[in-house]
Every structure is written in structure tokens, then in C-alpha cells.
Amino acid sequence: MNSVINGPVYADVPKPTFHPGPAGTHITIRGLTKYFAGWPLYENFDLDIPKGKIVSIFGPNGCGKSTLINMISGLVPIDRGEILFDGKSLKDTKIGYVFQNYREALFPWMRTIDNIAYPLKLEGKSKTEVDRRMEELVASFDVKFDLNRYPYELSGGQQQTASIMRALAPKPEVLFLDEPFSALDFEITLFIREKLQEVFMQTGTTMMLVSHDLEEAVYLADLVLLLTKRPTSIAEILRYDDPRPRTVATLSEANFVATKKRSLEVFQREVRR
Length: 273
Description:
The protein has 273 residues and is α/β, with parallel strands linked by helices. The protein folds into two domains: 21-93 and 175-182 and 199-273, Rossmann fold (3-Layer(aba) Sandwich); 95-172, no CATH class. The protein contains eight helices and nine strands. It has a six-stranded mixed β-sheet, with helices on both faces. The protein has a three-stranded antiparallel β-sheet with strand order 2-1-4, with no helix packed on it. A hairpin with a 2-residue loop joins strand 1 and strand 2 (39-50). The longest helix has 19 residues, at 254-272. The radius of gyration is 20 Å and the shape is globular. It starts with 24 loop residues before the first strand and ends with a helix.
């Protein structure tokens, strides 16, 4: 006889009516529930992500920031709830994902150029289409290193650049980024951060970014999603609408300083609870 110790117990209630988000919503999350070892991480969590915006996710350690984007992107199964992309299911939605650990993200037996092209080949694109898209990506990221080398022959920044290029290769509707700069030095972080801004301005791709760096989270965001400690809920959502491209000068602008200050206040409030 099989049994589950400390498993989640759900009441036998009818499935609630799905309520769509407001106009302009890209990702609609309703009733998201996830348990670990019998304890709730998310419970009946609702969220609307607007289309064509960068949403930064920030919160206390262990609140499930990475788990949230992993559930939305289908990498981690949910226990209950519904997630729709423009009214579509995940299987009908093209997504890209940039992992924190770039060393494990790229296939070591493939040349870097083949890693980047891999999603296009999975889609059955012709050689002409693949070559054209690769040329676009190389130009967008101003690539100076040799893409014919293997990932382990590249620096960390070059590997993460290749990872981002691969995630963007199939022109995803949504791009997820899980702490993409955490293992990089400051110089390459600045470079990739600016390239992401350029890609966003060119394509308007909806992006969800997890970051442990508050300045980075605010700098890149249109919306800052601040989370509570577990069981996790929304502490506050802050709008940040300084024009792009944002530069070093942005860091001293009044709106940036005020948004960062408010984010820190909410974060400290939640940590102390």
C-alpha cells in the first residue's frame, strides 16, 4: 500500500471560474498552488503579467522567486491552478529561458554556434532561415568571439551571451531569466544588461527576470513584483516607467531612486515579519 506523508490535502470543491486579466495582459495566473514536503510555497496565487513589459521579481530568500518562473514556464509542475498566455496554454506558446548556471545550460559537445541554432533546428527551419537568424543575433549582440569554439573554450560572459542568444533565437513570446548576471563580473554584466535592453526595445518581448540585486531589478524593469515570505503572496507591485534606453545617469534620476527606496522598504518589511 502506497501512502504520502505530509502531502497536501485539498478540499473537494468545484473548480473556480477562470477570470481573465485586464486588457493588455499576456500571462494570466489563477489559483496557483504549490506544496513542498507538505508545506505551502504558493497557495491560490493570482497574478497578471502585462504584454510587452519587463517584470522583475524580488523578495526574501526562500520565497520562491525562481520557482515561480519555473512553474510559469513549465519546468516545475504545479499542484493546482491555471496559467494562460494570451488565452493559450503553455504548449501553444513559444518561450525562451536563460538559466543562472550557464555552464550547465549549453551542450558541451556542440559548437557554440550549433547551441544557439539548436531551437531553430528543432522547429525544422531551413538552413537559409537558420543562417539569417544567426546573422541577426550576431549583429544584435555585437559578437566578437568565435562561435565555432565549444562552450568550455569560452569565458563565463561569452557562455552567458550565447545562452541568451539561444533563448532569443526562436523569437519567443515570453523570455524568462533566472538571475542571469549572478555569476558574471561587473563589466560583462553591464554589457549584457544593455544588450537585453536593446533587444527588448527592438522586439517588445515580454520578460520575467529574477534578481537578487535590487538596483538591477529596478533598472531593467517596467514593473517590480515584490513578494512576501512563504507562503508567498504579492507584497506590492511597483511601476517604473523611466524611458529607455536607461543608462548610468538613470541611477541618479528621482524616479529610479524613489522606486528603489520603496522596493527596499517593502523588502525590509517582509523580511522582518
